[in-house]
Amino acid sequence: MSEGINQLIIVVSGPGGVGKGTIVDRLVTRDQRLWLSRSWTTRERRPGESADAYVFASPEEFEQRIADGGFLEWTEFLGNYYGTPLPDLVALEGRDVVLEIELDGARQVKERFPTAVLMFLLPPSREEQERRLRGRGDPNDKVFARLRKAEAEEPLGRAIADHVLVNDDLETTVDEMLRVIAGERAARDCG
Ligand code: ADP
Ligand code: 5GP
Question: What is the distance of C-alpha 4 from the center of its chain?
């Protein structure tokens, strides 16, 4: 993946529980030209979580892949590694890439690929974010850690984002993001 390639890199970021995972699943279902990257993580699989939600790796495997230069970006988030493997350009088949990643990774991608489009999602309120985290089954300590992180990161997210969206009604947010993507494609095809 280089700047010479005519693909969009769409980065979806925002605090835990805002709805990123739910949204990117809908984006790729509704727009077949989008390709969702599967990240690596060293965290444990959650009860009920699909086995292919991530490549679940040991810390040793993850560190080996870092040493081999196999990540487009990686970070440590609340005690675990997370990273985007370098995409397989053959599997991509010219589709636009969607990355669902936290803010430090989003910042790295914007530095490496300035034309990447960063959409930063916000919850309608901290109370609603907390309801979503609890509704998803996050334990108390994770809920508090994610709320604290959300508070601390919001200014940076707003500052580096190309688009800031409040995920209130899910379908409205997805429609709005598809409109943004259509606009970015039109701009790319003209340029
Ligand atoms: P993230 O990937 O950002 O951590 P998730 O996609 O896991 O967040 O969403 C957290 C919870 O909030 C899930 O239970 C999801 O169904 C719910 N959710 C997502 N978007 C909305 C929305 N717009 N309104 C209400 N609930 C939502
Ligand atoms: P979770 O443990 O809830 O699945 O993910 C925790 C955070 O890590 C979320 O904000 C998610 O977007 C982020 N994340 C998932 N994959 C990656 C990745 O490959 N790189 C980075 N930087 N963050 C990721």
Answer: 23
